[in-house]
Write a structure and sequence with these properties.
Elements: E1 15-21, H1 33-44, E2 48-54, E3 66-69, H2 74-86, H3 88-96, E4 101-104, H4 105-111, E5 114-116, E6 122-124, E7 131-148, E8 152-166, E9 174-175, E10 189-190, E11 192-194, E12 197-200, H5 206-209, H6 211-226, H7 244-256
Parallel strand pairs: 1-2, 1-3, 3-4, 4-12, 5-7
Antiparallel strand pairs: 5-6, 7-8, 9-10, 11-12
The structure holds glutamine.
Residues 28, 71-74, 77, 105-106, 159-162 line the site of glutamine.
Protein name: Lipid II isoglutaminyl synthase (glutamine-hydrolyzing) subunit GatD
Pathway: Cell wall biogenesis; peptidoglycan biosynthesis
Active site: 105, 203
Length: 257
């Protein structure tokens, strides 16, 4: 039944431009699954996703409605850091302007103030999030469950040597019950949020397991581009191009999660 859920005239559907940032060097544990989920759910809501893969040196697209970036080892972070700094003012401006962004693990660390790796290298971050990260010998590894005020229970998998500490006033994504997991081994925070930016350690990939987070990002992107009338999600009607089959497919995906 491939394609059964596609709307007729999908080519005319309103576009949503997604930046997949550093897919070559920052994409471990299947973080690119987040891009697939956003793309598919946008289609099912009656939009036309346009994915721009942006690696080092690539020109920024004319239009960006959503930025997704994955995790990576310290070596991957060192490969992209100069390019990230070259884009820092742009990304800070877009974040300030309400652009939704999801940054996982290694990119979460670099969206903070700095990351001092376990070998003593200091990588300056771009300061979108009020957080800093220090590498430790003991990695935090394992499946994780956190409670988030906006998203309910969020699940995923973490594996990092960097321990992240939030500055006063920075909101975590959620709270973990076990001090030994999450941002660090000292408090119960996991992730960080500012405006529509979400930073988190959770791989999984995150969005297939937590469609409520995917819908938050999609809603923010679509509302910012098309205005309040174009909202998506279970509580509000999606775009006029959405069919009954598409609604059924969304329900099936949510059941799988
Ligand atoms: N290199 C970072 C760390 O280990 C991030 C790892 C990751 O993205 N999973 O802290």
């Amino acid at each position: 039944m491939a394609g059964a859920a596609d709307a007729p005239g999908a080519a005319d559907a309103p576009a949503v431009d997604i930046v997949s940032l550093y897919p070559r060097d920052m994409n471990i544990y299947g973080d690119s699954g987040n891009v697939l989920v956003i793309r598919r759910r946008l289609e099912l809501y009656g939009y036309r996703p346009v994915v721009h893969q942006i690696n080092q040196g690539d020109p920024w697209p004319d239009r960006a409605d959503l930025v997704l970036a994955g995790g990576g080892q310290d070596t991957g972070q060192k490969k992209i850091i100069d390019d990230l700094h070259a884009r820092a003012a742009l990304l800070r401006g877009l974040a300030e302007d309400g652009l939704p962004m999801l940054v996982i693990c290694g990119m979460y660390q670099l969206f903070g103030e700095y990351f001092e790796t376990v070998d003593g290298t200091r990588l300056d971050g771009i300061g979108v999030l009020g957080a800093y990260t220090v590498g430790r010998e003991r990695r935090l590894i394992g499946n994780l469950t956190e409670e988030s005020g906006d998203f309910g229970t969020v699940i995923g998998y973490e594996n990092h040597s960097g321990q992240t500490f939030l500055r006063e006033g920075t909101r975590p994504l959620g709270r973990v019950a076990d001090r030994e997991t999450g941002n660090n081994a000292e408090d119960t925070h996991e992730g960080a949020r500012v405006r529509n930016v979400i930073g988190t350690y959770l791989h999984g990939s995150l969005l297939p397991k937590n469609p409520v987070v995917a819908d938050y990002l999609i809603r923010a992107a679509v509302e910012r581009r098309y205005g309040g009338g174009a909202a998506v999600g279970a509580a509000v009607p999606a775009s006029g191009a959405q069919t009954e089959a598409m609604r059924a497919e969304l329900a099936r995906l949510d059941d799988l999660a």
